[in-house]
Structures are given as C-alpha cells and as structure tokens.
Design goal:
Low-confidence stretches: none
Distance between the termini: 66 Å
Number of strands: 6
Strand content: 15-25%
Strand order of the largest sheet: 1-4-5-6
Mean pLDDT: 80
Helix content: 25-40%
C-alpha cells in the first residue's frame, strides 16, 4: 500500500470513530440529559481549573540587575541591552536628558571625537549619583579614566556601569 492509501484509511477510521462518539453522545443527551450535561460541565470545569491554576514561582524571569555602586571606585562601561561590542554609550550633560531628537550629534559629525560617545569597555570612575522617578541612584556621574577622552565626565544610566 502507498502512503496515500494508508493516510486515507487513517482519516476514514478517525471520521468513523468521531461519528460513533458523536452519535453516542447525542443518544445519551436524548435518553439521559442530566448525565450528558453533567459530563459536559465536568469537562468544562476541569479545563477551567487547569487554565486558572498557576505555575510555581521558581521560574521567575530576571533581567540585568544594578550593582551596588560606590563613589570613587573604578568600573567599566557595558550596555546590557546590546550584543554589539562596538555600540557606544552616550555621556549626557544632565542626568535623564536622553532626548529623542538630539541635535548635538549632528554638530559633532564633522569634528574630531567629542567625547560624548564612549566605547563599551572603557574604564570610568564614579563621582556621583542622581535619583530618578523613585529609583535610587538611577543615574551615575562618571569620569573617563582611560583613552583619548580621559578626564571628561558626564551622566549615564546606572545599568550601563558594570
């Protein structure tokens, strides 16, 4: 026999079984409706219990967590939201001033390094903190400790300091 013939026989057998099951359920509905609706209610109740029951709490998804940062300590810049190593981290002049349309980047394109975009992996020293929206130490004031921009400072998000 070919695969098509086997598939057709399987489909026919499934249709026949489903038809017998349906006819026996309709028979039960006509002869004893209390039992029929009791079975239907039991199946619905079982499905509801399965859908409403929660899982265990051990599978909590966690993201990157902020470290306990200390003023004066040396850290490294690392953005946990990107996998691209060459993605720079922007030093901001004011904490929380991440505007959607920042024209300062356009001005700096023709100039030599403006020290506002710092490469990941650059060592920095923390000089201060700023709270934001009820989150303690949400922004960190850092001073670049190595490279071409050594000595320049600015604000970054605390999650970018590792």
């Amino acid at each position: 026999m070919s695969n098509e013939e086997n598939a057709k026989k399987t489909v026919d057998a499934a249709k026949e079984t489903a038809g017998k099951l349906f006819s026996s359920m309709m028979d039960l509905k006509e002869k004893n409706p209390k039992v029929f609706f009791g079975i239907v209610g039991g199946v619905v109740l079982l499905l509801l219990v399965m859908m409403m029951s929660g899982g265990d709490d051990s599978k909590i998804v966690s993201g990157p967590s902020a470290k306990n940062l200390v003023v004066g300590q040396r850290y490294v810049l690392k953005n946990p939201n990107t996998y691209e190593i060459e993605s720079p981290i922007k030093l901001l002049p004011v904490p929380g001033s991440m505007a959607a349309f920042d024209d300062s980047e356009e001005e700096d394109k023709g100039k030599v390094e403006s020290c506002r975009r710092i490469a990941q992996g650059t060592p920095v020293i923390i000089t201060g903190f700023q709270d934001f929206a009820g989150k303690k130490n949400a922004f960190v004031n850092v001073q670049v400790d190595d490279g071409q921009c050594k000595g320049s400072s600015g604000w970054i998000s605390a999650i970018d300091v590792q």
